[in-house]
Task: inverse folding
């Protein structure tokens, strides 16, 4: 086995491990998909789009840096800054979504009002959801969520791609550089899709109350948890 083959095998292995260990690569999509009733097909579509943006960001930066003869340390620093920015952006998104979810839960609280008309007394139950919107109706009225997640994932770097694989491969040949980038990206995307699919189907099997009154708040809390892991532990 030559050095090129070892590099490709290592790239695929690290891409798989990096994705599985980094829970933000799939739990974010599972949580938002369930809360917003996207369905598996749409959840996977959003995951794929965000995953492509995620890997392409590092590939483009790495390719430009290598072509311009940038030092590896400079590229690593840029990726580090991107990682910090993405981590804090994910935390901010999670906190805002959690707060919005709590507000939605309050609006969904059903209560009774008593009305007196002459000698007739009656009560009726209602909530404060605008026009009694369902979860999927709210999603249609607020399409910003997938775009917010997409932007965050474009900002987020594939930390190992440039220093461990693209830069060493470039010292060998342009062909190996392209091969390493493609293999790393393909494995990352396939692993993200597989994790999202397995987790989503698993939640369906468990019959957990993922679409209840506090669904959005729970989704926001999960995103916050992923962001804390990214910022504090570097997962």
Result:
């Amino acid at each position: 086995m030559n050095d090129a083959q070892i590099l490709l095998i290592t790239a695929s292995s690290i891409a798989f491990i990096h994705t599985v260990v980094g829970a933000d690569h799939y739990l974010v999509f599972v949580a938002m998909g369930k809360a917003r009733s996207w369905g598996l097909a749409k959840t996977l579509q959003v995951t794929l789009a965000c995953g492509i943006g995620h890997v392409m960001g590092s590939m483009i930066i790495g390719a430009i840096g290598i072509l311009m003869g940038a030092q590896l340390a400079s590229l690593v620093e840029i990726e580090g800054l991107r990682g910090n920015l993405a981590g804090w952006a994910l935390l901010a998104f999670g906190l805002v979504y959690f707060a919005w979810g709590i507000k939605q839960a309050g609006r969904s609280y059903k209560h009774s009002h008593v009305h007196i008309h002459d000698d007739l007394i009656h009560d009726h139950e209602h909530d404060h959801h605008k026009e009694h919107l369902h979860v999927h109706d709210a999603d249609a009225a607020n399409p910003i969520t997938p775009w917010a997640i997409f932007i965050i994932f474009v900002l987020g770097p594939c930390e190992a791609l440039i220093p461990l694989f693209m830069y060493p491969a470039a010292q060998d040949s342009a062909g190996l550089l392209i091969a390493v980038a493609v293999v790393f990206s393909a494995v990352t995307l396939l692993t993200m899709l597989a994790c999202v699919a397995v987790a989503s189907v698993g939640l369906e099997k468990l019959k957990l109350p993922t679409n209840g009154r506090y669904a959005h708040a729970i989704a926001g809390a999960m995103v916050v948890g992923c962001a804390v892991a990214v910022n504090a532990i570097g997962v």
